[in-house]
Amino acid sequence: MPITTRIARHIGLLTALALTVLSPLVHAHDKPPLKILVGFPPGGSADVMARLVADALRDDFSPISQIARFQFGVVAGPASGVKNVGEMIAKANPGANSYGTPGAGTLPHFMGVLMEQSTGVQLNHVPFQGGAPANNA
User: Fold this and answer.
1) Least CB-packed of 17, 34, 90, 97 within 10 Å?
2) Could you count the other beta carbons within 10 Å of the beta carbon of residue 106?
3) What are the extents of the domains in the chain?
4) CA–CA separation, 45 vs 31, rounded Å?
5) Architecture of domain 78-136 in this structure
6) Of 18, 8, 136, 124, which is closest to residue 68 (Cα–Cα)?
7) Over its length of 137 residues, how does the chain's per-residue pLDDT go in tens digits?
8) How far apart are the C-alpha atoms of 33 and 58, rounded to whole Å?
9) Cα distance between residue 58 and residue 96, in whole Å
């Protein structure tokens, strides 16, 4: 499936989620604003999800449920010539393999550490100041 189709599907799903969450909250305007501290800059996935659920949290704090599920992937530039993770590991050069994340201590960072430990390949962590800068790098 082309990346543009996947992006369009994700945008559609996020729009549907936003409408589902926000539609019953039309009459919640008389309540004081809720402040949520998000430890990453605007534009990343943490910021988007916090904005989607902020009004819902103001109404009811009792439900506990999953609000999102993220899939992670490993990508390599076309010049690398690798087609899968096995080829990437086989071509790895000690000390010359880097991966970027939204920051130290994030789930992608821990996934990189797990990959490093399970493959024995040394990886250099490149922490960015949030999801948007990491995605644009």
Assistant:
1) 90
2) 20
3) 3-59, 78-136
4) 26
5) 3-Layer(aba) Sandwich (3.40)
6) 18
7) 566 666 656 665 566 555 555 555 554 555 666 677 787 788 888 888 888 877 677 676 555 677 777 777 888 888 888 998 889 888 888 778 888 898 998 888 988 999 899 988 899 999 999 888 888 87
8) 8
9) 47
**For residues 55 and 15, what is the distance between their CA atoms, to the nearest angstrom?**
15
Matching residue, tokens 């000390």: 95
At 74, the amino acid letter reads V
Decide the pairing of beta strands 124-127 and 98-101.
parallel
Using the structure block, give the residue that is written with the tokens 């086989």: 90
CB 103 within 8 A of CB 40: yes
Structure tokens at 81: 């010539």
Number of other residues whose CB lies within 10 A of the CB of residue 33: 8
